[in-house]
Amino acid sequence: MRKKESRRRFIKFGAKIVVATPLLAYGLSSCKNSKTVGNKIQESTSRGLKILILGGSSFLGPHQIAYALGRGHEITTFTRGKTKPTIHQKLFEQVEQLIGDRNDNLTALENRKWDAVIDNSGHKVEWTRQTAELLKDNCDLYLYTSSTGVFYPYINSDFTEESELVLEVPAGVDGEMKMEYDYGVMKALSEIETIKTFGEDRSIIVRPTYMIGPADRTNRFIHWPIRLSKGGEILVPGKPEDKIQYLDVRDAAEWMIRLIEDKKVGTYNAPGPKEAQDIFQFVEEASGSFDVSSSIVKIDDYDFLKDNGIYYLVPWIMPEGNNVGSSHINNTKAFANGLTCRSLTHTVRDTYNWWYSDGVSQEQRDKIEKDPKNLLLTEASIIEKWKNKR
Ligand SMILES: NC(=O)c1ccc[n+]([C@@H]2O[C@H](COP(=O)([O-])OP(=O)(O)OC[C@H]3O[C@@H](n4cnc5c(N)ncnc54)[C@H](OP(=O)(O)O)[C@@H]3O)[C@@H](O)[C@H]2O)c1
User: Based on the number of CB atoms within 10 Å of its own CB, is 246 exposed (0-12), middle (13-18) or buried (19 or more)?
Assistant: First the structure.
């Protein structure tokens, strides 16, 4: 929310065997049936796939695991064993957990075969180069979890899958801008490494925008579920022409598994929602998650917002400078290829419930909710200043 709390700072890091099972022309799986997971009936596939997730214990991974197990697949994760999932812990215990380190120890991945690998923890180009090389003869498909950050700086108004990628960090940039460049370049070069090693016919690249939902460790989005639950006068920054984009982490996770099942190789931008939305429509829809009465205080004066340290409130990003087109990522291809979005009220309510579950410690909650600099606590005085100014 405050500029010094960089948006990127919150992104946490990260003898050949011939595969016996040939890829099926129509996809990796067929013959759907159904299975109950928790109280949910999920579609399942009769031929379970063996899927390796590099990462798997943080935000995106646990949701991929839950969905994949529900569809009859077998999951192996590869981590250092440090990060513990804050959701679906019991399911996580059921999967094979390989331990190693992408920096210097990939031994556990040697001489093993999988139908597909999902690279969630690709936080260095070398990491992706090394695992793609190691796994190319033992895995059929490589899905690299990239990011819309590959389009940084966002100075255009419609980024399609064919738009130019950022391939180097210009000289002289520093601070938050350098972090944005570093991340974008790393993701773009990692995509290239994936395709170079696995080939276009065995690579899937998915570029999510801000993912939101249960198990998010970045604390970028939690403001909204907490704030909307309380009702009253709610500060909403931005102008009606400021578009926003986001994607429920579960919609991303589940779609990735289906892309693998259907062997839908290719590169996909992955921002939701399907139809363009502004922050006021977002707040109005999201408010339906709680049975409290609230009203919106629209603050559309960027200078005033900056004076009060509000440069972004994800999914709203002040559309200035390099961020002018950050929410103008074309999503036509993703939706034409099976991406779906659950309702925003589900996202907000489930995130709220997760935040107050045992998966999150009171200390973590206090860090946000009791921080005197957090907008949750400064909002009332900012609204008062705004009213006085008007
Ligand atoms: N969050 C977003 O809004 C967003 C948006 C676009 C794209 N993405 C991308 O989505 C992907 C998944 O994000 P995420 O938040 O779920 O995961 P993440 O926090 O980026 O990655 C953490 C996972 O990687 C493992 N890991 C970290 N360092 C490792 C190492 N040296 N060796 C082996 N494993 C290591 C962690 O387990 P251990 O700590 O136990 O090793 C954990 O399972 C990332 O690539 C991210 O860039 C995220």
Answer: buried
Token pair for residue 40? 């949910």
Atom of ligand 1 nearest to the CA of 146: 7
Instruction: Check if 269 has its Cβ closer than 6 Å to any atom of ligand 1.
Output: no
**Ligand 1 in contact with 83 (CB < 6 A)?**
yes
Rounded to the nearest whole angstrom, what is the distance from the C-alpha of residue 170 to the centroid of ligand 1? 26
Domain count, the chain: 1
Residue 264 near residue 338, CB atoms below 8 Å: yes
Q: What share of the chain is helix, strand, coil (3-state, %, to 5)?
A: 35, 20, 40
* pTM reported for the whole predicted model: 0.91
Of 58, 75, 77, 248, the residue with max ligand 1 atoms within 8 A of its CB, to mutate for a pocket test, comes to 58
pLDDT of residue 47: 76
Residue 306 domain flag: no
CATH of the domain at 70: 3.40.50.720
Is there a domain that residue 325 lies in?
A: no
Q: Which alpha helices (H) appear in 266-319, and where do they start and end?
A: 279-287, 302-307
Q: What would the pLDDT profile of 257-293 be if each residue is shown by its tens digit?
A: 999 999 999 999 999 999 999 999 999 999 999 999 9
In terms of residue numbers, what domain contains 83? 32-214+246-273
Ranges of residues in the chain whose predicted pLDDT is under 50: 1-5, 9-27, 29-41, 45-46
CA of 131 to the centre of ligand 1 (A): 15
Which tokens is 338 given? 């099976």
358: in domain: no
pLDDT recorded at residue 390? 84
Backbone angles phi, psi at 52, to 5 degrees: -100, 130
pLDDT of amino acid 13: 29
For ligand 1, pick from 6, 10, 60, 218 the residue to mutate: most ligand atoms within 8 Å of CB: 60
Share of the chain above pLDDT 70, in %: 88
Report the C-alpha gap between 292 and 271 in whole angstroms: 29
Whether 161 maps to a domain, the answer reads yes
**Per DSSP, which regions of the chain are E strands?**
32-37, 40-45, 50-54, 74-79, 96-99, 114-119, 139-145, 203-208, 211-212, 232-237, 243-248, 266-270, 272-278, 294-299, 312-313, 316-317
